[in-house]
User: Which sequence fits this backbone?
C-alpha cells in the first residue's frame, strides 16, 4: 500500500516536472515566420559557386585568368580538376582569402569575374520578379507551368486595370485579394519554376488573354466570383474578366 | 519528511499555473497591441481617403469655374495627385474588391482624365463642351463619394465602430454593425458609380484603350479542328504526339484576342512537359507559343540565336522584322522584333521570339502585340528634317544613332525621329515628333550583362 503511494507520488512529480519543462518552452517561444528568405533567393542570381568537379564556361574563365596570372599550368578545358583546385588555393593564399579551393563570391570578385553587375543607377526589375515569384509560389505551387504564368499574368493585368492598384505590390497585398497573402504562404521561398514563370510573365507572356480574376472552383466561396465572365480553365483554376 | 514530500506536487502545479498565466497575459497584451496598431492604420487610411476625395471634389468645382489654362493645369495636376492618393489608400482598406471596384475605377479615371486634360491644355487646346460635361459628372460622383464617407464618419464617432478585425469578445456584434454601415454604404456608392457614363478620352486607363480589339487579324473564323491543325503545323506536324485543347468558359469570345488554347505534347520530350499554344479564332493565327523545357549546356552565341530567330520568323511568314532589344534569362534569350516598312521602325507591331541557347530551338513566340496593331499604314513623310529635329534635343546629349520610328501614343500612332544616345553616363532614347517637332517621349535604357530593358 505504502509502496504504491510512493510510486504514485513519484509519478506525479515526474509528470509535473516534464509538463513544466515542456510548457516553459511556450513562455519563450516566438513564432518564427519564414520571412528571411531574400538572401537565399539572391543566390539564384549570383554566379554559381565553383568547386572541384564542376564543369562549364565559368570554370574556363577562372582557368583562363589563373593561367594568365601564372597560377595555373593546365589546359583551359572547363573542368574543375586537381590542377585548378591547386591554382585556386595558391591564388587565395596570395590574395589573403580563405584558402579553401572554392570559387565563391569573394574569390570570384578578387578574380575580377562579373558578379551580378550593378545595373544603371540601381534601377532594375528584380524586386518585381521576386515578389511575383513569391505570389506564384504561394498561390499556384501545384499548378502546371502555364498555370503559374497565368497567375502572374493576372497580377500584371491588374496593375494595368483601372479598378485595381497600379503597382505589383499594391495588387499583391490588396487586403482580401489573395489567400496566400492572408495566410502568409507568400513568404515561402519561391522555387526555380516560380521564378522562371515570373520572368516569362514580366516579359509579356499572357496565356489568359487579359483576364483579371481566377478562382479554384473547388474552394471558391464567394458567390460574387462566379458572376464574373468565365474565359478559360488552366490547370485547376478558372480565369475570368 | 513525509509532510514535505506532500507539498512538492501542489507547489509545482501552482508554479505551473502562474507560469501559464504570465504567458497568457503576455499573449493577450501582444494581441491587443497588434489590434490597436492595425486599427490605427485603418483609421488613418480612412481619414486620408476622406481628405483626398474632398480635395478632388473641391478642385473639380474650381476647375469648372476657372478660365485660364495655366490655372486649370495647376488644378488638374492637384486633382490627379489627390485622386491617385485616394485610390491607393482605398485599395489598402479591408474591403473586398467586389465592393470597391467601381469606386477605384472612378478615382483612377478621374486622375487619368485630369492628366489627359493637362496634356490638351499644354498643346494649347480649350476644354470642349463634352469635356465640361464629363467634369460635371466627375464632380457629382466625387460629391456622392464624399457624402457616403461622411456618413461612415458620423458612425465612427460612436466608439464601438472598429475598422480592423474586431476582438473576439464584443466581436460579433461590432462586426455586424460595421458591415452594415461600412460595407453597405460603400456598396451603394459602388452601384451609383456604375451608373455614370463612360469617360471618353485617350489615356492608359480609359475604357476605349482597355477594350481595344485586334486590327491585324484576317476576317475569317476558324473552327476548333482547323485551329488544331494550324497549331500542329506551326509546331511541326511530324514532331507532335498529341494535341489537347484547354477547357473554355462561356465568355471566351470577350477576351482581347479570342483564341483556342492547346497543349501540344511533342515526340521525344518528357510526358509532363507540354508546349502551349494559342490560335486566334478570327483568322486562325498563332498568337503565342511557349515551350517551357529546361535548358542546360549553353552553346549558342547571341548572334547565332538572332539568326535562328530571324529565320524562324521568315519561315512563319513575317518579313521585314528587325531585332531590337534582347534579354538573356534561364538559358534562353528573348528578342523583340519590330516591323519595318520603308526604313521606318514600327514599334507597335512587336513580335517576341525566345531562343533556347542549347540547340537553337525556338521556345517562345508572342505575336499578340503584332496582331493587335498591325495594319496597312500610310506613313506620312516627315515635315521636318533630321537636323531640325536635332535642335529640339538637349545639345549635350551624345547621339549614337538616329532613325525614323512609329511609336504608340494612346490609341494613336505617331511618326518620330528616334535619337539614341548617352547623357550623364546613362543611355536614353528621345523621340521627337517628325511632323511638328514636339518632344514626345524619353526612355531610359537599363543595360546589364543579360540584356537591355527600357523604362
Assistant:
Amino acid at each position: 500500500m505504502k509502496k504504491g503511494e510512493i510510486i504514485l507520488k513519484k509519478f506525479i512529480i515526474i509528470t509535473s516536472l516534464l509538463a513544466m519543462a515542456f510548457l516553459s518552452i511556450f513562455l519563450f517561444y516566438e513564432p518564427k515566420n519564414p520571412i528571411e528568405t531574400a538572401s537565399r533567393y539572391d543566390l539564384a542570381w549570383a554566379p554559381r559557386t565553383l568547386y572541384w568537379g564542376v564543369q562549364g564556361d565559368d570554370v574556363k574563365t577562372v582557368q583562363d585568368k589563373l593561367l594568365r596570372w601564372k597560377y595555373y599550368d593546365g589546359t583551359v578545358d572547363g573542368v574543375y580538376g586537381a590542377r585548378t583546385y591547386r591554382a585556386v588555393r595558391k591564388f587565395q593564399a596570395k590574395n589573403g582569402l580563405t584558402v579553401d579551393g572554392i570559387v565563391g563570391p569573394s574569390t570570384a570578385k578578387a578574380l575580377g569575374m562579373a558578379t551580378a553587375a550593378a545595373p544603371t543607377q540601381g534601377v532594375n526589375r528584380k524586386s518585381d520578379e521576386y515578389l511575383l515569384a513569391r505570389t506564384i509560389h504561394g498561390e499556384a505551387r501545384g499548378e502546371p507551368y502555364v498555370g503559374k504564368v497565368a497567375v502572374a499574368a493576372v497580377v500584371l493585368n491588374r496593375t494595368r486595370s483601372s479598378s485595381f492598384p497600379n503597382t505589383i505590390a499594391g495588387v499583391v497585398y490588396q487586403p482580401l485579394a489573395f489567400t496566400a497573402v492572408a495566410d502568409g504562404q507568400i513568404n515561402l521561398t519561391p522555387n526555380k519554376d516560380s521564378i522562371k514563370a515570373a520572368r516569362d510573365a514580366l516579359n509579356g507572356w499572357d496565356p489568359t488573354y487579359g483576364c483579371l480574376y481566377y478562382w479554384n472552383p473547388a474552394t471558391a466561396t464567394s458567390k460574387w466570383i462566379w458572376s464574373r465572365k468565365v474565359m478559360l480553365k488552366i490547370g485547376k483554376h478558372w480565369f475570368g474578366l | 519528511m513525509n509532510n514535505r514530500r506532500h507539498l512538492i506536487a501542489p507547489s509545482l502545479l501552482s508554479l505551473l499555473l502562474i507560469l501559464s498565466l504570465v504567458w497568457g497575459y503576455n499573449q493577450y497584451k501582444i494581441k491587443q497591441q497588434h489590434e490597436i496598431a492595425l486599427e490605427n492604420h485603418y483609421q488613418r487610411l480612412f481619414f486620408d481617403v476622406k481628405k483626398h476625395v474632398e480635395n478632388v471634389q473641391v478642385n473639380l468645382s474650381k476647375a469648372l469655374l476657372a478660365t485660364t489654362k495655366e490655372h486649370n493645369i495647376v488644378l488638374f495636376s492637384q486633382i490627379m495627385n489627390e485622386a491617385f492618393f485616394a485610390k491607393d489608400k482605398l485599395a489598402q482598406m479591408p474591403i473586398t474588391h467586389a465592393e470597391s471596384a467601381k469606386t477605384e475605377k472612378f478615382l483612377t479615371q478621374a486622375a487619368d482624365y485630369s492628366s489627359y486634360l493637362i496634356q490638351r491644355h499644354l498643346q494649347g487646346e480649350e476644354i470642349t463642351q463634352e469635356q465640361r460635361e464629363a467634369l460635371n459628372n466627375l464632380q457629382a460622383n466625387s460629391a456622392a463619394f464624399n457624402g457616403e464617407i461622411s456618413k461612415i464618419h458620423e458612425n465612427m464617432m460612436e466608439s464601438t465602430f472598429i475598422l480592423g478585425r474586431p476582438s473576439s469578445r464584443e466581436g460579433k456584434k461590432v462586426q455586424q454593425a460595421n458591415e452594415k454601415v461600412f460595407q453597405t454604404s460603400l456598396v451603394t456608392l459602388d452601384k451609383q458609380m456604375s451608373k455614370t457614363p463612360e469617360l471618353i478620352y485617350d489615356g492608359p486607363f480609359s475604357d476605349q484603350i482597355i477594350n481595344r480589339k485586334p486590327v491585324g487579324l484576317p476576317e475569317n473564323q476558324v473552327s476548333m479542328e482547323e485551329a488544331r491543325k494550324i497549331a500542329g503545323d506551326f509546331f511541326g506536324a511530324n514532331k507532335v504526339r498529341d494535341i489537347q485543347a484547354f477547357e473554355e468558359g462561356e465568355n471566351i469570345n470577350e477576351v482581347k484576342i479570342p483564341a483556342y488554347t492547346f497543349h501540344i505534347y511533342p515526340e521525344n520530350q518528357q510526358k509532363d512537359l507540354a508546349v502551349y499554344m494559342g490560335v486566334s479564332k478570327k483568322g486562325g493565327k498563332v498568337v503565342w507559343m511557349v515551350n517551357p523545357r529546361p535548358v542546360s549546356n549553353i552553346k549558342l552565341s547571341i548572334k547565332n540565336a538572332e539568326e535562328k530567330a530571324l529565320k524562324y520568323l521568315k519561315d512563319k511568314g513575317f518579313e521585314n522584322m528587325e531585332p531590337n532589344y534582347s534579354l538573356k534569362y534561364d538559358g534562353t534569350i528573348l528578342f523583340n522584333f519590330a516591323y519595318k516598312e520603308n526604313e521606318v521602325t514600327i514599334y507597335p507591331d512587336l513580335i517576341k521570339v525566345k531562343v533556347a541557347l542549347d540547340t537553337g530551338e525556338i521556345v517562345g513566340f508572342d505575336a499578340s502585340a503584332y496582331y493587335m496593331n498591325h495594319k496597312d499604314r500610310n506613313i506620312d513623310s516627315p515635315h521636318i528634317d533630321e537636323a531640325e529635329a536635332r535642335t529640339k534635343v538637349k545639345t549635350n546629349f551624345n547621339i549614337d544613332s538616329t532613325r525614323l520610328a512609329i511609336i504608340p501614343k494612346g490609341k494613336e500612332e505617331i511618326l518620330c525621329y528616334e535619337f539614341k544616345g548617352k547623357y550623364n553616363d546613362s543611355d536614353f532614347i528621345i523621340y521627337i515628333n517628325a511632323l511638328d517637332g514636339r518632344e514626345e517621349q524619353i526612355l531610359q535604357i537599363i543595360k546589364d550583362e543579360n540584356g537591355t530593358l527600357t523604362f
